[in-house]
Design a protein that fits this description.
It is a single chain. The chain is of the alpha/beta class. It has 2 domains: 183 residues, Rossmann fold, CATH 3.40.50; 155 residues, N-(1-d-carboxylethyl)-l-norvaline Dehydrogenase, domain 2 (Orthogonal Bundle), CATH 1.10.1040. It has 13 helices and 12 strands. It has an 8-stranded mixed β-sheet, with helices on both faces. It has a 4-stranded mixed β-sheet with strand order 4-3-10-9. Helix 1 links the parallel strand 1 and strand 2. The mean pLDDT is 94.
Amino acid sequence: MNSKKIAIVGAGAIGASVAVDLVLAGQDVTLVDQWTEHVQMINKCGLKVSVDGQTFTAQVAALHPSDLTSLRHQFDIAIIAVKAYDTRWTAELIQPHLSPGGYVVGMQNALCDEDIARSIDPARIVSNVIELSAEVFSPGEVVRNTSHAKTWFGVGVDKAAVDSNSAMRVSEVALLLKNVGKVATLDDVTAAKWTKLIANAMLLGPLGITGMRLGEALGINGLREFLVAVGTEAIAVAADSGFSVEPVFGLSRDELLGSPEKISRTLVDTLVKHIGPNALVAPAQDYKKGRQKEVAAINGLIVRNGAHAGIPTPANKAIVDIDLQIRRGELSPGGANLGLAARMAGV
């Protein structure tokens, strides 16, 4: 594996956390990111990730996307770790820089493989389901909230895109990611990605609109009931699309049996325990940075698919609507937004 050249496109909190562990394990990694100051700081001082009271520093090459035009070598593996809304152009950007046998690993929230496949042969895409919370506000410095012991990856290939090299690629990616956390290979990775989407719908958007860290947000009255309502709607939409809830995050199949409400509670409780009270979910970070959020690609997808199937999704729609109001400057992130969302959804 040391001979493989790996690109991580998107050196944000997740991509950077993975990069440091891979570099410290002896892998040949190059980062590509559009945040110029971040790229400059990494090249000057190394990439720092703090986790469990320790700080790890990796010396790793970092490029701005414009630097790829003069790159002379190609990558054997490209990990795409950008926001969902940046997927299409990122896949197009990296495609010419893949080696003849190279492939892409999608390491994102939402259901992004279809967008990657617009530029990359679907047979050359390894799907990834990830449980890892981290944040970055200063160039070159990342805080990882999820310990190595509680970080989890599920790796697999879409059943419709399997070829003679799929098993090798999945095995290769699984071996790499064992340097970062626990890894499971998945028979139905698309169903697992839907399960992660359900979990993200419950935590990212709803907690994001509060602007609070997890431990603080958990004290909001009625929070869990609202999160369960979001999850129950998402499970119904997934079922209409032909996907059942799959074991993720180290849970067993038996632990994910029962009513949609019970399954939703199990997913929430598991994530809360794993990511820790200090976690600030990605949309909350993005509000602070003034950046676009992934709410439209997560809760918005549930709303759109629900409307197409005739499935009511008022809790998810409330999150989408409040996110839009925050982006317009009509609201600010705060705990009161959860009560507003609950009233809008009739929860």
